[in-house]
Structure prediction request, 235 residues.
Amino acid sequence: MKENDTNVSMPRIGDPAPQFKAVTTQGPINFPEDYKGNWVILFSHPADFTPVCTSEFMTFAVMEEKFAAVNCKLVGLSIDGLYSHIAWLRTIKEKIEYKGMKDVEVKFPLIEDISMEVANKYGMVQPGESQTQAVRAVFFIDPKGIIRTIIYYPLSLGRNFNELYRVVVALQAADAFGVAMPADWHPGDEVIVPTAGSCGVAQQRMESKAEMTCYDWFFCTKPLPEKEVWKKIKK
Prediction:
């Protein structure tokens, strides 16, 4: 381990989201207190005025209403100053056209973090990748302020936004229906029923003719209609 690696804080899934106050392009925030009752995607990008980050911010901005419809707010961060943020976002709106996206206005807050305080609290600065820029970290935080999923991408790789949206929906559906989601789950697909807690229950499942399908005692699925998912999740 490198000497300065010991300074990297790495929050874990299930931890309370580290608290901080910060200045953003949308005014001051107190995080996660200001977002109680909402899901939040807190994400970092390496730097303003860089091409991969520009493509990502345009995509996030275009999808913001889609995330809002499933009760999820967006908060961005980089180790840049407020005036740099403002100038970059203005450039995106006035000059950048990419993949049919143009005149894109970024309305969600972008945190100023010159001191690297927030980035270090969330383990966004990883010295093996860069000591001066945040990696592309994504934290999914639930309405109680608990970290539920963490995804890290290197500086060179833009994020998959369809996957970020799928994660938010899947986490909420899993909570709402008390189930787990199989690989590549999307609304309308079958879901996984929690493993039976006793041999008797497992046997009953295997013999059941109900909607549930059991491949073995530990692996049972059941239908979850798409409309039921959206009924629970969409605002």
About this structure: The two ends are 46 Å apart (CA to CA). Strands lie at 20-22, 29-31, 39-44, 72-78, 110-112, 136-141, 147-153, 191-193, 213-216, 219-222. The chain has two domains: 3-159, 178-233. Residues 1-6 have pLDDT under 50 and may be disordered.
